[in-house]
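Write out this protein's structure.
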Amino acid sequence: MVSCLDTSTTKKLLLSLGAALLASCASYVDKTSGAMDAFRNGRFEQAEALFADKERTGSTFLSGAEAGLVSLTAGDFAAAIEYLTAAAAFSEEAENASLVDPESLVESLASWTLSETTTDYLGEGYERVMVHACLGLAYLAQGKVDDLLVEVRRSNDLLNAEQDLYDTEYEAGGFGHLLSAIGYELRGEMDQAYIDYLDMYDKGVGLDLVGPSLVRLSRSMHRSEDMDRFAEEFGEPAEIPGDAAKVILLAGVGLGPMKQEVRIDVPTVDGIFAWAVPAFQPQGNYGTNLEISTSDLAASSVVVEDVNAVATKNLDDRIAMLSVKSAVRGALKLRLTKELQKKHGSAGALIGQLFAIITEKADLRSWLTLPATWQAARLYPQPGTTTIRLRAIGGESIELGTYDLAPGETIFVLARNLGPRLHAHVLGGRQVDLSTPEPQAAPNPGSDQ
């Protein structure tokens, strides 16, 4: 790191030490605790404002991603698109490089700095994938199916690049494929929707939801070989009346994992060898399911994307590199301590040891408002007037209103489960005000606007 240290160098180190002390006072989790508390308790306007403050988060990517998902949960889809687009734009350069050459990401990941926290945070690979999936969901809420399909294609391309980079297969992308399939179904392109369902089947995600769709589509598209094997695997799906409406639940359940520090400080004859790496720790409500019902039907939600599992595996694929980088930095800082001791005696040694301990920090930044899982369910109620309800199994139950459903109509319920509480928005249909005879029109996401 240095071969000799003059007074100027020592002063710079002291300044760096002071800056490191200030920076180490609070991790990302600490800095955003107030925003997360507001989010958990449904104070979305406050949470959005806190997360949007880049001085608080210290990250353009995370400010956009966090505030965007808060806005999406609150039903402010225009704001969600604005925030999430800003997050995606910030990491676009790294994304484009990875799509052309997945190995090019290694250079940015291998920036040998004082600690990981001193670099710009572009988002973990799975987070950059998820930004585009969430953008797709926001566009679906606005009825912009073409924009939805653009975003989920980008999401899937980035996922493939991430898998190529680490030569692995993630059980990921199920949420993006489901959104893509829904988009194609809304456009009547069943052959394209079928491809997305096949991708989900190959990845083994959301099979209880995907299986019946594969049986029905293979039969309607006269794919006899597929029809036989899927019917044998999943059984015959319940018959759907030709004029049935469709109610689709798309829900984020719980909170995704947060990072904690795994740390070792080893005294040596030359000073303190400091080593630190991040590890994911699941938050609460993992595994909770939802139930959506109409007046005469009910269905439990199916996990289509396990964010906890994907995040953990994605970090595991990087942990060897992070461990080596921390070890190299630890060795360099031991050398620095030795040089300081030679130059300034015990005072120099103390500065070196403090510098090593304080500056070696695991990067605990991550997208905290992501759910633990993305889940989905479908109902095919008869057209007419029906009341829609949503229940978190073991938690809150809410009535979403009474709707007059047209034959063949598709409506969506976008929901988020946070602890025992549910937040939901119904898109499409005509909500019936039971105090008046006339139904009220609601936005329909089934066609571009």
